[in-house]
Amino acid sequence: MDSTYSSSAKIDVTTEDAQLEHVLERTNQMLVNAEVDNYATKIFLKNMSHKVRTSMNGILGFVDLIFHSELTGKQHRYLELVKNSAYELLIYLDDHIDLSQIEIEQYKTSSVTFNLITLLETVVDLLYQQLHEKSIQLHLHVEKNVPAYVMGDAERLIRTFINLLSKSHDGSTLNDVVINVSVADCSSKYITLAFWIYNSDGKMLIAPELNSYTAVESPMGNRVHPGHNLGLAIASYFIQSQNGSLYGRRQENYGTNFYFTIKLPLATNESQLSGNPKTPISEKNILIVADNSINSAIIEKSFSAQAKQITIANENDNISNLLDTKEVDLIIIDISRSSQFASTVFSEILKRSYLIPKTVVLIDRDTPYFKSFPEFEQLNTIFKPCKCHQVSNAISRVTDDNYNYSIQKQTYSNYNQKRILLVEDILVNQILAKTLLKDTGILIDVAEDGEKALQALENNEYDLVLMDVQMPLMDGITATKIIRNEMNLKDIPIIAMTAQIMTEDKEMCMDAGMNDYISKPIRNDELHEILQKWLKK
Protein backbone atom coordinates (compact mmCIF):
# COMPACT_ATOMS: atom_id res chain seq x y z
CA MET A 1 0.00 0.00 0.00
CA ASP A 2 1.21 3.48 -0.81
CA SER A 3 2.42 5.03 2.44
CA THR A 4 1.44 8.49 1.28
CA TYR A 5 -2.14 7.35 0.67
CA SER A 6 -2.23 5.56 4.01
CA SER A 7 -1.01 8.64 5.86
CA SER A 8 -3.56 10.78 4.07
CA ALA A 9 -6.39 8.40 5.02
CA LYS A 10 -5.38 8.52 8.69
CA ILE A 11 -5.38 12.31 8.60
CA ASP A 12 -8.86 12.34 7.01
CA VAL A 13 -10.25 9.95 9.59
CA THR A 14 -8.72 11.91 12.42
CA THR A 15 -10.14 15.13 11.01
CA GLU A 16 -13.61 13.62 10.62
CA ASP A 17 -13.50 12.30 14.19
CA ALA A 18 -12.57 15.73 15.49
CA GLN A 19 -15.35 17.36 13.46
CA LEU A 20 -17.88 14.81 14.66
CA GLU A 21 -16.81 15.33 18.26
CA HIS A 22 -17.15 19.08 17.79
CA VAL A 23 -20.65 18.65 16.34
CA LEU A 24 -21.66 16.43 19.26
CA GLU A 25 -20.33 18.98 21.73
CA ARG A 26 -22.29 21.76 20.03
CA THR A 27 -25.42 19.61 19.93
CA ASN A 28 -25.14 18.79 23.62
CA GLN A 29 -24.57 22.45 24.44
CA MET A 30 -27.64 23.43 22.38
CA LEU A 31 -29.73 20.86 24.26
CA VAL A 32 -28.44 22.21 27.58
CA ASN A 33 -29.22 25.76 26.45
CA ALA A 34 -32.72 24.70 25.37
CA GLU A 35 -33.35 23.09 28.76
CA VAL A 36 -32.10 26.22 30.51
CA ASP A 37 -34.34 28.38 28.31
CA ASN A 38 -37.32 26.14 28.99
CA TYR A 39 -36.65 26.22 32.73
CA ALA A 40 -36.22 30.00 32.68
CA THR A 41 -39.46 30.39 30.72
CA LYS A 42 -41.29 28.12 33.15
CA ILE A 43 -40.02 30.02 36.22
CA PHE A 44 -40.85 33.38 34.63
CA LEU A 45 -44.39 32.27 33.82
CA LYS A 46 -44.93 30.86 37.31
CA ASN A 47 -43.74 34.05 38.96
CA MET A 48 -45.77 36.28 36.63
CA SER A 49 -48.88 34.14 37.13
CA HIS A 50 -48.44 34.24 40.91
CA LYS A 51 -48.03 38.02 41.05
CA VAL A 52 -50.96 38.76 38.71
CA ARG A 53 -53.32 36.25 40.30
CA THR A 54 -52.47 37.35 43.84
CA SER A 55 -53.35 40.94 42.94
CA MET A 56 -56.46 39.87 41.04
CA ASN A 57 -57.61 37.86 44.05
CA GLY A 58 -57.98 41.08 46.03
CA ILE A 59 -59.51 43.05 43.16
CA LEU A 60 -62.10 40.48 42.10
CA GLY A 61 -62.84 39.36 45.65
CA PHE A 62 -63.82 42.80 46.82
CA VAL A 63 -65.66 43.54 43.58
CA ASP A 64 -67.86 40.49 44.28
CA LEU A 65 -68.45 41.71 47.83
CA ILE A 66 -69.54 45.12 46.56
CA PHE A 67 -71.99 43.40 44.21
CA HIS A 68 -73.90 42.20 47.28
CA SER A 69 -74.39 45.76 48.56
CA GLU A 70 -76.99 48.26 47.37
CA LEU A 71 -75.94 49.65 44.00
CA THR A 72 -77.40 51.91 41.38
CA GLY A 73 -77.73 50.55 37.86
CA LYS A 74 -74.77 52.65 36.72
CA GLN A 75 -72.56 51.46 39.60
CA HIS A 76 -73.44 47.84 38.88
CA ARG A 77 -72.59 48.32 35.20
CA TYR A 78 -69.21 49.90 36.00
CA LEU A 79 -68.33 47.08 38.38
CA GLU A 80 -69.27 44.52 35.73
CA LEU A 81 -66.85 46.22 33.35
CA VAL A 82 -64.08 46.11 35.98
CA LYS A 83 -64.78 42.42 36.63
CA ASN A 84 -64.87 41.52 32.94
CA SER A 85 -61.66 43.41 32.19
CA ALA A 86 -59.88 41.62 35.04
CA TYR A 87 -60.99 38.20 33.82
CA GLU A 88 -60.00 39.05 30.24
CA LEU A 89 -56.49 39.79 31.51
CA LEU A 90 -56.38 36.47 33.36
CA ILE A 91 -57.57 34.55 30.30
CA TYR A 92 -54.94 36.28 28.15
CA LEU A 93 -52.27 35.36 30.70
CA ASP A 94 -53.44 31.75 31.03
CA ASP A 95 -53.56 31.25 27.25
CA HIS A 96 -49.94 32.35 26.95
CA ILE A 97 -48.92 30.08 29.81
CA ASP A 98 -50.62 27.18 28.01
CA LEU A 99 -48.89 28.12 24.75
CA SER A 100 -45.49 28.10 26.45
CA GLN A 101 -46.24 24.76 28.15
CA ILE A 102 -47.20 23.25 24.80
CA GLU A 103 -44.05 24.53 23.13
CA ILE A 104 -41.77 23.05 25.81
CA GLU A 105 -43.91 19.88 25.84
CA GLN A 106 -45.00 20.23 29.47
CA TYR A 107 -48.72 20.76 28.93
CA LYS A 108 -50.74 18.73 31.44
CA THR A 109 -54.42 18.77 32.33
CA SER A 110 -55.79 18.29 35.81
CA SER A 111 -58.71 16.12 36.93
CA VAL A 112 -60.86 17.30 39.81
CA THR A 113 -64.52 16.87 40.65
CA PHE A 114 -66.54 19.95 39.70
CA ASN A 115 -70.14 20.99 39.24
CA LEU A 116 -70.68 21.34 35.49
CA ILE A 117 -73.80 23.47 35.91
CA THR A 118 -72.01 25.90 38.22
CA LEU A 119 -69.16 26.07 35.71
CA LEU A 120 -71.52 26.91 32.85
CA GLU A 121 -73.23 29.54 34.98
CA THR A 122 -69.81 31.04 35.71
CA VAL A 123 -69.18 31.31 31.96
CA VAL A 124 -72.53 33.04 31.48
CA ASP A 125 -71.74 35.38 34.40
CA LEU A 126 -68.40 36.38 32.91
CA LEU A 127 -69.74 37.09 29.42
CA TYR A 128 -73.31 38.22 30.06
CA GLN A 129 -72.64 41.91 30.62
CA GLN A 130 -70.11 42.11 27.80
CA LEU A 131 -72.64 40.69 25.34
CA HIS A 132 -75.52 42.64 26.87
CA GLU A 133 -73.63 45.85 26.05
CA LYS A 134 -73.84 44.76 22.39
CA SER A 135 -77.58 43.92 22.70
CA ILE A 136 -76.74 40.21 22.52
CA GLN A 137 -78.50 37.76 24.82
CA LEU A 138 -76.63 34.68 26.01
CA HIS A 139 -78.81 31.60 26.57
CA LEU A 140 -77.88 28.39 28.37
CA HIS A 141 -79.83 25.17 27.89
CA VAL A 142 -78.76 21.99 29.68
CA GLU A 143 -80.57 18.78 28.71
CA LYS A 144 -82.20 16.93 31.59
CA ASN A 145 -79.92 13.88 31.45
CA VAL A 146 -76.70 15.89 31.84
CA PRO A 147 -75.14 15.07 35.24
CA ALA A 148 -74.22 17.93 37.53
CA TYR A 149 -70.88 16.48 38.64
CA VAL A 150 -68.03 15.30 36.42
CA MET A 151 -64.24 15.19 36.66
CA GLY A 152 -61.80 17.17 34.56
CA ASP A 153 -59.88 20.41 34.16
CA ALA A 154 -62.54 22.95 35.12
CA GLU A 155 -60.40 26.06 34.67
CA ARG A 156 -59.36 25.17 31.13
CA LEU A 157 -62.94 24.23 30.24
CA ILE A 158 -64.11 27.69 31.35
CA ARG A 159 -61.44 29.30 29.16
CA THR A 160 -62.41 27.07 26.25
CA PHE A 161 -65.99 28.32 26.40
CA ILE A 162 -64.92 31.94 26.75
CA ASN A 163 -62.49 31.71 23.83
CA LEU A 164 -65.08 30.08 21.56
CA LEU A 165 -67.91 32.37 22.62
CA SER A 166 -65.76 35.45 22.12
CA LYS A 167 -65.04 34.34 18.58
CA SER A 168 -68.53 33.06 17.77
CA HIS A 169 -70.27 36.43 17.54
CA ASP A 170 -67.52 38.17 15.53
CA GLY A 171 -69.15 39.22 12.28
CA SER A 172 -72.62 38.18 13.44
CA THR A 173 -75.58 40.51 13.01
CA LEU A 174 -77.79 38.32 15.22
CA ASN A 175 -78.85 39.11 18.77
CA ASP A 176 -78.76 35.70 20.47
CA VAL A 177 -76.00 33.25 21.33
CA VAL A 178 -77.00 29.78 22.57
CA ILE A 179 -75.01 27.23 24.56
CA ASN A 180 -76.68 23.83 24.38
CA VAL A 181 -75.33 20.90 26.42
CA SER A 182 -76.32 17.28 25.88
CA VAL A 183 -75.02 13.75 26.45
CA ALA A 184 -73.49 12.13 23.36
CA ASP A 185 -72.48 8.87 25.06
CA CYS A 186 -72.34 7.49 28.59
CA SER A 187 -70.98 4.42 30.36
CA SER A 188 -70.70 3.48 34.01
CA LYS A 189 -67.46 5.45 34.37
CA TYR A 190 -67.25 7.97 31.53
CA ILE A 191 -69.51 10.47 29.84
CA THR A 192 -69.08 12.18 26.48
CA LEU A 193 -70.67 15.62 26.51
CA ALA A 194 -71.66 17.51 23.37
CA PHE A 195 -71.68 21.30 23.32
CA TRP A 196 -73.24 23.51 20.66
CA ILE A 197 -72.36 27.21 20.57
CA TYR A 198 -74.34 28.97 17.90
CA ASN A 199 -75.86 32.31 16.96
CA SER A 200 -79.60 32.61 16.45
CA ASP A 201 -82.07 35.06 14.99
CA GLY A 202 -84.29 34.86 18.09
CA LYS A 203 -85.81 31.45 17.37
CA MET A 204 -85.04 28.23 19.17
CA LEU A 205 -83.06 26.87 16.26
CA ILE A 206 -81.90 23.33 16.12
CA ALA A 207 -78.20 23.59 15.38
CA PRO A 208 -77.34 22.64 11.77
CA GLU A 209 -76.41 19.09 10.89
CA LEU A 210 -72.85 18.29 11.84
CA ASN A 211 -71.98 17.43 8.24
CA SER A 212 -72.16 21.15 7.48
CA TYR A 213 -69.31 21.78 9.94
CA THR A 214 -65.60 21.30 9.34
CA ALA A 215 -63.07 19.98 11.85
CA VAL A 216 -61.00 22.62 13.60
CA GLU A 217 -57.57 21.08 14.02
CA SER A 218 -55.18 22.59 16.54
CA PRO A 219 -52.13 23.93 14.69
CA MET A 220 -50.05 23.62 17.85
CA GLY A 221 -47.87 20.94 16.32
CA ASN A 222 -46.50 23.59 13.97
CA ARG A 223 -45.81 26.03 16.83
CA VAL A 224 -48.55 28.60 16.81
CA HIS A 225 -47.45 32.04 17.92
CA PRO A 226 -49.59 34.61 19.72
CA GLY A 227 -52.08 36.23 17.43
CA HIS A 228 -55.73 36.60 16.57
CA ASN A 229 -56.41 32.83 16.63
CA LEU A 230 -54.45 31.98 19.78
CA GLY A 231 -57.60 31.42 21.84
CA LEU A 232 -59.09 29.15 19.18
CA ALA A 233 -55.85 27.16 18.88
CA ILE A 234 -55.60 26.72 22.67
CA ALA A 235 -59.28 25.67 22.84
CA SER A 236 -58.79 23.11 20.07
CA TYR A 237 -55.67 21.70 21.72
CA PHE A 238 -57.44 21.32 25.08
CA ILE A 239 -60.48 19.63 23.50
CA GLN A 240 -58.24 17.12 21.71
CA SER A 241 -56.42 16.44 24.98
CA GLN A 242 -59.84 15.44 26.44
CA ASN A 243 -60.47 12.84 23.72
CA GLY A 244 -62.78 15.23 21.94
CA SER A 245 -63.14 17.02 18.62
CA LEU A 246 -63.91 20.61 17.67
CA TYR A 247 -65.93 21.58 14.59
CA GLY A 248 -66.72 25.02 13.24
CA ARG A 249 -69.06 26.56 10.69
CA ARG A 250 -68.85 30.17 9.55
CA GLN A 251 -71.78 31.85 7.80
CA GLU A 252 -72.19 35.39 6.62
CA ASN A 253 -74.12 37.41 9.24
CA TYR A 254 -74.19 34.34 11.54
CA GLY A 255 -70.63 34.55 12.80
CA THR A 256 -68.92 31.26 13.63
CA ASN A 257 -70.85 28.41 15.21
CA PHE A 258 -69.02 25.67 17.09
CA TYR A 259 -69.67 22.09 18.10
CA PHE A 260 -67.32 20.10 20.32
CA THR A 261 -67.25 16.97 22.45
CA ILE A 262 -65.18 16.00 25.45
CA LYS A 263 -64.96 12.69 27.30
CA LEU A 264 -64.82 12.99 31.09
CA PRO A 265 -64.92 10.61 34.05
CA LEU A 266 -68.13 10.67 36.06
CA ALA A 267 -67.74 11.89 39.62
CA THR A 268 -67.96 9.12 42.22
CA ASN A 269 -71.21 9.10 44.23
CA GLU A 270 -72.36 12.31 42.58
CA SER A 271 -72.79 11.28 38.95
CA GLN A 272 -76.53 10.79 39.23
CA LEU A 273 -77.25 14.31 40.41
CA SER A 274 -79.06 16.01 37.57
CA GLY A 275 -78.07 19.48 36.52
CA ASN A 276 -81.71 20.57 36.43
CA PRO A 277 -83.07 21.19 39.95
CA LYS A 278 -86.46 19.72 40.79
CA THR A 279 -89.33 22.07 41.52
CA PRO A 280 -92.81 21.31 42.91
CA ILE A 281 -94.76 22.09 39.72
CA SER A 282 -96.40 18.72 39.21
CA GLU A 283 -99.90 19.16 37.78
CA LYS A 284 -99.46 22.93 37.59
CA ASN A 285 -100.57 25.21 34.75
CA ILE A 286 -97.73 27.46 33.66
CA LEU A 287 -97.97 30.59 31.54
CA ILE A 288 -94.67 31.72 29.99
CA VAL A 289 -94.63 35.30 28.74
CA ALA A 290 -91.53 36.19 26.73
CA ASP A 291 -90.51 38.45 23.87
CA ASN A 292 -87.83 35.97 22.83
CA SER A 293 -88.78 32.53 21.59
CA ILE A 294 -85.43 31.05 22.65
CA ASN A 295 -86.08 31.99 26.28
CA SER A 296 -89.60 30.60 26.25
CA ALA A 297 -88.55 27.39 24.49
CA ILE A 298 -85.74 26.76 27.00
CA ILE A 299 -88.09 27.31 29.95
CA GLU A 300 -90.73 25.08 28.35
CA LYS A 301 -88.23 22.25 27.75
CA SER A 302 -87.01 22.55 31.34
CA PHE A 303 -90.48 22.04 32.87
CA SER A 304 -92.51 20.18 30.24
CA ALA A 305 -92.06 16.78 31.89
CA GLN A 306 -93.29 18.04 35.27
CA ALA A 307 -96.04 20.54 34.51
CA LYS A 308 -99.66 19.77 33.71
CA GLN A 309 -99.85 22.34 30.92
CA ILE A 310 -97.55 25.03 29.57
CA THR A 311 -98.82 27.97 27.54
CA ILE A 312 -96.43 30.33 25.78
CA ALA A 313 -97.43 33.92 25.09
CA ASN A 314 -95.63 36.55 23.06
CA GLU A 315 -96.22 40.02 21.67
CA ASN A 316 -98.78 38.75 19.17
CA ASP A 317 -101.05 37.26 21.82
CA ASN A 318 -103.82 38.91 23.80
CA ILE A 319 -102.42 38.75 27.33
CA SER A 320 -105.66 39.96 28.91
CA ASN A 321 -107.67 37.12 27.39
CA LEU A 322 -105.09 34.51 28.41
CA LEU A 323 -105.12 35.69 32.01
CA ASP A 324 -108.91 35.60 32.14
CA THR A 325 -109.57 32.35 30.31
CA LYS A 326 -106.82 30.13 31.71
CA GLU A 327 -106.39 28.78 35.19
CA VAL A 328 -102.83 29.87 35.97
CA ASP A 329 -100.73 28.49 38.84
CA LEU A 330 -97.47 30.08 37.77
CA ILE A 331 -96.52 32.97 35.47
CA ILE A 332 -92.93 33.30 34.26
CA ILE A 333 -92.18 36.66 32.65
CA ASP A 334 -88.99 37.07 30.64
CA ILE A 335 -88.94 40.31 28.69
CA SER A 336 -85.67 41.79 27.53
CA ARG A 337 -86.28 43.97 24.52
CA SER A 338 -89.83 45.24 24.14
CA SER A 339 -90.62 47.92 26.73
CA GLN A 340 -94.15 48.34 25.34
CA PHE A 341 -94.84 44.62 25.68
CA ALA A 342 -93.46 44.67 29.23
CA SER A 343 -95.72 47.57 30.18
CA THR A 344 -98.74 45.75 28.78
CA VAL A 345 -97.96 42.52 30.65
CA PHE A 346 -97.23 44.22 33.97
CA SER A 347 -100.36 46.40 33.73
CA GLU A 348 -102.62 43.40 33.08
CA ILE A 349 -101.19 41.45 36.01
CA LEU A 350 -101.53 44.42 38.36
CA LYS A 351 -105.23 44.61 37.43
CA ARG A 352 -105.46 41.09 38.85
CA SER A 353 -103.58 41.51 42.13
CA TYR A 354 -104.17 37.86 43.06
CA LEU A 355 -101.72 36.93 40.27
CA ILE A 356 -98.78 38.90 41.69
CA PRO A 357 -97.76 36.19 44.22
CA LYS A 358 -97.88 33.65 41.38
CA THR A 359 -95.50 35.60 39.16
CA VAL A 360 -91.75 35.13 38.67
CA VAL A 361 -89.96 37.87 36.74
CA LEU A 362 -86.63 37.27 34.98
CA ILE A 363 -85.19 40.64 34.08
CA ASP A 364 -82.03 42.57 33.27
CA ARG A 365 -80.69 44.60 36.18
CA ASP A 366 -80.50 47.87 34.22
CA THR A 367 -84.05 47.60 32.87
CA PRO A 368 -86.20 50.73 33.26
CA TYR A 369 -89.51 48.80 33.52
CA PHE A 370 -89.61 48.72 37.31
CA LYS A 371 -89.64 52.50 37.57
CA SER A 372 -93.27 52.33 36.47
CA PHE A 373 -94.06 49.07 38.27
CA PRO A 374 -92.24 49.05 41.64
CA GLU A 375 -94.58 46.32 42.92
CA PHE A 376 -92.63 43.73 40.94
CA GLU A 377 -89.23 44.78 42.22
CA GLN A 378 -89.87 43.21 45.63
CA LEU A 379 -91.76 40.12 44.50
CA ASN A 380 -90.14 37.03 42.98
CA THR A 381 -87.67 38.96 40.85
CA ILE A 382 -84.53 37.33 39.47
CA PHE A 383 -81.92 39.47 37.82
CA LYS A 384 -80.13 38.01 34.85
CA PRO A 385 -78.01 36.05 34.31
CA CYS A 386 -80.33 33.64 36.11
CA LYS A 387 -78.98 30.63 37.99
CA CYS A 388 -80.74 27.25 38.06
CA HIS A 389 -81.10 27.27 41.85
CA GLN A 390 -82.41 30.86 41.82
CA VAL A 391 -85.14 30.00 39.33
CA SER A 392 -85.93 26.81 41.23
CA ASN A 393 -86.24 28.65 44.56
CA ALA A 394 -88.43 31.37 43.05
CA ILE A 395 -90.77 28.86 41.45
CA SER A 396 -90.93 26.87 44.67
CA ARG A 397 -91.95 29.97 46.58
CA VAL A 398 -94.77 30.53 44.11
CA THR A 399 -96.08 27.00 43.69
CA ASP A 400 -95.54 25.27 47.02
CA ASP A 401 -97.67 26.51 49.92
CA ASN A 402 -95.48 24.62 52.40
CA TYR A 403 -92.23 25.95 51.00
CA ASN A 404 -89.93 27.46 53.63
CA TYR A 405 -87.53 29.75 51.85
CA SER A 406 -85.28 30.12 54.87
CA ILE A 407 -84.54 26.41 54.61
CA GLN A 408 -83.82 26.54 50.89
CA LYS A 409 -81.42 29.46 51.07
CA GLN A 410 -77.77 28.53 51.12
CA THR A 411 -76.87 28.80 54.78
CA TYR A 412 -73.78 27.83 56.72
CA SER A 413 -75.17 27.39 60.23
CA ASN A 414 -73.52 23.96 60.41
CA TYR A 415 -70.18 25.81 60.55
CA ASN A 416 -70.92 27.28 63.99
CA GLN A 417 -67.92 26.93 66.31
CA LYS A 418 -65.84 25.32 63.56
CA ARG A 419 -62.31 26.64 63.77
CA ILE A 420 -60.16 27.36 60.73
CA LEU A 421 -56.52 28.33 60.44
CA LEU A 422 -55.96 30.76 57.56
CA VAL A 423 -52.32 30.75 56.45
CA GLU A 424 -51.82 33.79 54.19
CA ASP A 425 -49.08 36.44 54.04
CA ILE A 426 -50.90 39.11 52.00
CA LEU A 427 -52.98 41.43 54.20
CA VAL A 428 -55.58 42.15 51.49
CA ASN A 429 -56.20 38.43 51.02
CA GLN A 430 -56.48 37.93 54.80
CA ILE A 431 -59.15 40.62 54.99
CA LEU A 432 -60.96 39.20 51.95
CA ALA A 433 -61.07 35.64 53.31
CA LYS A 434 -62.29 36.78 56.73
CA THR A 435 -64.93 38.98 55.09
CA LEU A 436 -66.19 36.12 52.91
CA LEU A 437 -66.53 33.92 55.99
CA LYS A 438 -67.74 36.45 58.54
CA ASP A 439 -71.40 35.32 58.49
CA THR A 440 -70.70 31.59 58.62
CA GLY A 441 -70.13 31.16 62.34
CA ILE A 442 -66.55 30.04 61.68
CA LEU A 443 -63.80 31.02 64.12
CA ILE A 444 -60.74 32.15 62.13
CA ASP A 445 -57.13 32.38 63.25
CA VAL A 446 -54.53 33.86 60.89
CA ALA A 447 -50.90 32.85 60.43
CA GLU A 448 -48.70 34.95 58.14
CA ASP A 449 -46.36 32.12 57.04
CA GLY A 450 -45.70 28.41 57.37
CA GLU A 451 -43.65 28.68 60.56
CA LYS A 452 -46.40 30.54 62.41
CA ALA A 453 -48.91 27.99 61.07
CA LEU A 454 -46.91 25.17 62.71
CA GLN A 455 -46.85 27.08 66.00
CA ALA A 456 -50.62 27.63 65.85
CA LEU A 457 -51.24 23.93 65.16
CA GLU A 458 -49.09 22.96 68.13
CA ASN A 459 -51.12 25.13 70.50
CA ASN A 460 -54.67 24.78 69.11
CA GLU A 461 -57.04 22.32 67.48
CA TYR A 462 -58.48 23.21 64.09
CA ASP A 463 -61.15 21.70 61.86
CA LEU A 464 -59.50 22.84 58.62
CA VAL A 465 -56.46 24.73 57.30
CA LEU A 466 -56.60 27.14 54.35
CA MET A 467 -52.96 27.16 53.23
CA ASP A 468 -51.42 29.66 50.86
CA VAL A 469 -48.69 27.97 48.82
CA GLN A 470 -46.12 30.68 48.14
CA MET A 471 -45.07 32.55 51.32
CA PRO A 472 -41.86 33.96 52.82
CA LEU A 473 -39.85 32.12 55.51
CA MET A 474 -41.70 28.83 54.99
CA ASP A 475 -43.96 28.04 52.04
CA GLY A 476 -47.18 26.06 52.20
CA ILE A 477 -45.71 22.90 50.65
CA THR A 478 -42.95 22.64 53.26
CA ALA A 479 -45.37 23.41 56.09
CA THR A 480 -47.81 20.74 54.90
CA LYS A 481 -45.10 18.07 54.74
CA ILE A 482 -44.08 18.87 58.32
CA ILE A 483 -47.73 18.81 59.48
CA ARG A 484 -48.28 15.39 57.92
CA ASN A 485 -44.94 13.70 58.59
CA GLU A 486 -43.39 15.29 61.69
CA MET A 487 -46.43 16.53 63.60
CA ASN A 488 -48.38 13.43 62.50
CA LEU A 489 -51.59 15.40 61.91
CA LYS A 490 -53.02 13.10 59.26
CA ASP A 491 -56.73 13.86 59.52
CA ILE A 492 -57.02 17.65 59.43
CA PRO A 493 -58.10 18.82 55.94
CA ILE A 494 -55.54 21.16 54.35
CA ILE A 495 -56.82 23.18 51.40
CA ALA A 496 -54.28 24.90 49.16
CA MET A 497 -54.99 28.46 48.13
CA THR A 498 -52.75 28.86 45.13
CA ALA A 499 -52.06 31.49 42.51
CA GLN A 500 -50.15 28.85 40.54
CA ILE A 501 -52.37 27.21 37.92
CA MET A 502 -49.89 24.83 36.29
CA THR A 503 -50.91 21.22 36.69
CA GLU A 504 -47.59 20.15 38.21
CA ASP A 505 -48.05 22.76 40.96
CA LYS A 506 -51.44 21.30 41.85
CA GLU A 507 -49.96 17.80 41.79
CA MET A 508 -47.19 19.04 44.10
CA CYS A 509 -49.85 20.23 46.56
CA MET A 510 -51.53 16.83 46.55
CA ASP A 511 -48.19 14.99 46.86
CA ALA A 512 -47.28 17.12 49.88
CA GLY A 513 -50.41 15.91 51.67
CA MET A 514 -52.98 18.58 50.90
CA ASN A 515 -56.58 17.43 50.42
CA ASP A 516 -57.86 19.96 47.90
CA TYR A 517 -57.08 23.34 46.40
CA ILE A 518 -58.67 26.62 45.36
CA SER A 519 -57.13 28.65 42.56
CA LYS A 520 -56.78 32.38 42.96
CA PRO A 521 -58.66 34.57 42.35
CA ILE A 522 -60.96 32.85 44.85
CA ARG A 523 -64.69 32.94 44.12
CA ASN A 524 -67.12 33.13 47.01
CA ASP A 525 -69.29 30.19 45.89
CA GLU A 526 -66.22 28.03 45.21
CA LEU A 527 -64.82 28.72 48.68
CA HIS A 528 -68.10 27.79 50.37
CA GLU A 529 -68.41 24.66 48.22
CA ILE A 530 -64.97 23.53 49.39
CA LEU A 531 -65.84 24.25 53.02
CA GLN A 532 -69.12 22.34 52.76
CA LYS A 533 -67.25 19.40 51.27
CA TRP A 534 -64.56 19.14 53.96
CA LEU A 535 -66.20 20.48 57.11
CA LYS A 536 -69.04 17.98 56.81
CA LYS A 537 -66.68 15.03 56.90
Structural features, described:
There is one protein chain. This protein is an alpha/beta fold and 537 residues long. Helix content is 45%, strand content 19%. The protein contains 15 helices and 18 strands. The protein has helices at 3-67, 73-103, 116-132, 154-168, 230-241, 293-303, 319-325, 339-351, 388-399, 405-408, 427-436, 450-459, 476-485, 503-512, 524-535, and strands at residues 112-115, 137-142, 149-152, 176-186, 190-200, 214-215, 246-251, 255-265, 285-290, 309-313, 330-334, 359-363, 381-383, 419-423, 443-447, 464-468, 494-498, 516-519. The strands form 4 sheets. Strands 2-4-5-8-7-6 form a 6-stranded mixed beta sheet, with helices on both faces. A 5-stranded parallel beta sheet has the order 10-9-11-12-13, with helices on one face. Helix 13 (476-485) links the parallel strand 16 (464-468) and strand 17. Helix 4 crosses helix 5. The longest helix is centred in the N-terminal third of the chain and has 65 residues, at 3-67. The protein is globular, with a radius of gyration of 28 Å. Mean pLDDT is 77; it is low at 221-228 and 404-413.
Quick summary of this structure?
By secondary structure, the protein is an alpha/beta fold. It contains 15 helices and 18 strands.
Q: Structural class, judged by helices and strands?
A: alpha/beta
Q: Please give the largest β-sheet.
A: 6 strands, mixed
Low-confidence stretches: 221-228, 404-413
The end-to-end span amounts to 89 Å
- How many helical elements? 15
Shape field? globular
State Rg: 28 Å
Strand content: 15-25%
Mean pLDDT: 77
Main sheet: strand order: 2-4-5-8-7-6
Number of β-strand runs: 18
